[in-house]
Amino acid sequence: MHDGTRAHTWFPFPTTPPASFQRLLPSILNKALPSFPTKPSLSLSLSLSLSLHGLIRVLVALLLASILGSSEARDFLVGGNDNAWRVPPNTTDSLNQWAEKNRFQVGDSLVWKYDAAKDSVLQVTRDAYLGCNRSSPVAEHKDGATVVRLHLPGANYFISGAAGACEEGEKLIVVVMSERHSLRGLATAPSPAESEGPAVAPTSAARRAVVFGSGMACSLVVLGMLM
C-alpha cells in the first residue's frame, strides 16, 4: 500500500552529503571567504553543501542522459541536402569534407537523394574507390532514394555509377567509429582522407580525445556518487 511518500528511485545517489564532507566544508569556506564579517556557521555550510550536492546531481544526470541519448541510431542525408550526390562544383565542396564534420556510429544510416534516371550509388572496395572502378561493386543502388545502414566500424567507400562522375569527384568515404570509442561530441571524427592511405583507424589525436572524454565522463559520475 502506498504511504503517500515519494520514493526517489530515479537516481542512485545518497540524498545528503557524506559526514566527512560536511565536517570539512566550514574550514574550506573559511579559507575561500576570508573577508566574511563572521565565519560561516555549520548550518550555512550544510546548506551550501546541500545546494552543491543538488547541483552536481543535476549535472551528472544531464551528462548520463546525453551519453545514453547519443547511442540512438541516426539517419544522415548525404551532403546535407537532396542535391548533394553530384559532381562537386569545386574541390572545396567535396562530400568527404561533409563526412569529416560528422561522427558515424554502428547502426546509423546514410540516405541519398538523386535522379535515378541519371545516377546511382555504388558501394565499392578501397581499391575500386581509388581507381573509380565501377565494374564489380559490393552493392549497387539505383532507386533514387537509397538508404545504407552502417553495420560495422571502419571505412565505407561509395562512388557514383554515372560514367566519368567518380573521376570528377562524385564519391564518398564514411568512417564508422567503433562502438567502444563512440562518445558523440567527445571524440574527434576520423578523417576520410586517412582511409585513402594504408590505415583506416582513427588518428592518435582522436584516440586521445576519446580517452580524455571518457575519463571526464567517468570522473563526473564518480563525483556525483560521492556527493
How are the strands of the biggest sheet laid out side by side?
2-8-7-4-5
For the record, the CATH architecture of the domain at 75-180 stands as Sandwich
Number of strand segments? 8
Shape: elongated
Contiguous uncertain segments of 5+ residues: 4-11, 184-188, 198-214
End-to-end separation? 32 Å
> What would the average pLDDT be, to the nearest integer?
73
Helix-strand sequence: HHEHEEEHEEEEH
Estimated structural class: alpha/beta
CATH topology of the domain at 75-180: Immunoglobulin-like
Under CATH, the homologous superfamily of the domain at 75-180 reads Cupredoxins -  blue copper proteins
CATH level-1 class of the domain at 75-180: Mainly Beta
Task: Please report which band the strand proportion falls in: under 5%, 5-15%, 15-25%, 25-35%, 35-45% or over 45%.
Answer: 5-15%
- Give me the number of helical elements: 5
Model description:
It is a single chain. The protein is α/β, with parallel strands linked by helices and 227 residues long. Among the domains are: 19-69; 75-180, Immunoglobulin-like, CATH 2.60.40. The chain is built from 5 helices and 8 strands, in the order ααβαβββαββββα. The protein has a 5-stranded mixed β-sheet. It is elongated. The two termini are 32 Å apart.
Would you kindly provide a brief summary of this structure?
The protein has 227 residues and is of the alpha/beta class. It has helices at residues 19-32, 42-69, 95-100, 126-131, 204-226, and strands at residues 75-77, 104-105, 109-111, 121-124, 139-141, 147-149, 154-160, 171-177.
